[in-house]
Design brief:
- 2 copies of one chain form a homodimer.
- By secondary structure, chain A is of the alpha/beta class.
- The first copy, chain A, contains 7 helices and 9 strands; from the N terminus they run βαββαβαβαβαβαββα.
- In chain A, the strands form 2 sheets. The first copy, chain A, has a 5-stranded parallel sheet, with helices on one face.
- Chain A is elongated.
- The relative contact order of chain A is 0.13.
- Chains A and B meet through helix 1, strand 2, helix 3, helix 4 and strand 6 of A and helix 1, strand 2, helix 3, helix 4 and strand 6 of B.
- Strand 2 of chain A pairs antiparallel with strand 2 of chain B.
Chain lengths: ~220, ~220
């Protein structure tokens, strides 16, 4: 029993995914990750990460035998390529400074064999930021969210609370008015520092973990 | 007929996706995007963007009636939240400077209503970069790739050529030795500048398009 990541190129038509999942289910294989989207040339791109695969050659042969499938390839998983994600939301001069710290620190970890990506959405406005926080529950591999702004509160606080009830989401924020610091796991004044610390939190080669700090000592 | 983005929380067990795709296929709905992953609490998270939906209420009712489904919610699409992606690969001092330019420029566009994300993977080594370029064919919404390094060639060149045969991928790169500049669409010496120009290329509110430049004038 092994895990595999495979990529299927297919005709874009209704029902193709059903044909594919039927074969996978018949093989008693678990789908740990699936990403399907329509390419610019209108082909379907279906990327799967499969667990408990008994006979990968037979599976690929059966998938290839579908009329709607052009090709099936084995490839590295998204986790292998892109690794954990540190997500940065915010605007103005601060968002790029937080990213600067995070990217420089991730470079130092990745050169030692880790994989950490820094995904930045420059976004402002209470409603837009709250919506983007909610969207984190629908994307994989999120490790730490950093809020890089000068005023965040209201709906943003409510959304963090809501997400944290269900997900193990770590939130670091800049020190700022608005109340968002009350629901953040770590509050840092310097933007480069908060970026660095977010990557240290995500990294498995680093010893830093905000949970080791006393609750009264989580503001820098 | 309308388009919807929905999110399904389900039991994590074999065959759930098949049950769901069966219902969607029966409704004659097209799946434009699907992302499935296992959450930390072991629930399945299945996020779909659907086209040609006739009766969304009936669809949600039928999905909710599945024993393995906990909840179904309508939410904004990934395109609405995260928008187009400018992807940055490279290492050292340059990767964060390219990101600095790109994030600052994206902030200026997003504040005017666009959505552009800057996704950075600090990565070095011919093989790792080539693999990460290949992985771009398996993720959605990629607009421009920026190569931020001081020496890139060999396999990286071959991978760019291969991807460009099939995908409409735009590649900007720093001016550097190694030959990668030969297969890049635009070559820029200053790292902040190449980040800014990548976002201008991706943006629909900007007038810049490298294709408007003479081929002999695509190096800055």
């Amino acid at each position: 029993m092994s895990n595999y990541a495979i990529s299927i190129k297919s005709v874009e038509k209704k029902g193709v995914l059903e044909e594919i999942t039927e074969i996978i289910t018949a093989h008693n294989i678990n789908i740990a990750y699936l990403n399907l989207f329509i390419e610019r040339d209108s082909k379907g791109s279906i990327n799967l990460e499969l667990e408990d695969v008994d006979d990968i050659d037979l599976l690929i042969k059966e998938l290839n035998s579908l009329e709607s499938v052009y090709s099936v390839e084995i490839h590295p998983s998204q986790e292998d390529v892109f690794g954990k994600r540190v997500i940065i939301y915010g605007g103005g001069s601060q968002v790029s400074q937080v990213a600067l710290g995070a990217i420089t620190e991730a470079d130092r970890h990745n050169i030692r064999g880790e994989r950490i990506s820094i995904d930045t959405l420059p976004v402002v406005g209470e409603e837009s930021i709250a919506e983007a926080i909610n969207a984190l529950t629908r994307i994989p591999r999120v490790s730490v969210l950093v809020l890089a702004g000068s005023l965040m509160g209201g709906e943003i606080i409510e959304e963090i609370k809501k997400v944290k009830e269900v997900y193990d989401l770590t939130v670091f924020s800049l020190n700022m008015p608005g109340g968002v610091t009350e629901v953040s796991d770590l509050v840092v004044t310097d933007p480069i520092q908060v970026g660095v610390m977010a990557v240290m939190q995500a990294a498995s080669t680093a010893v830093f973990d905000y949970r080791k700090l006393k609750k009264s000592n989580r503001k820098f």
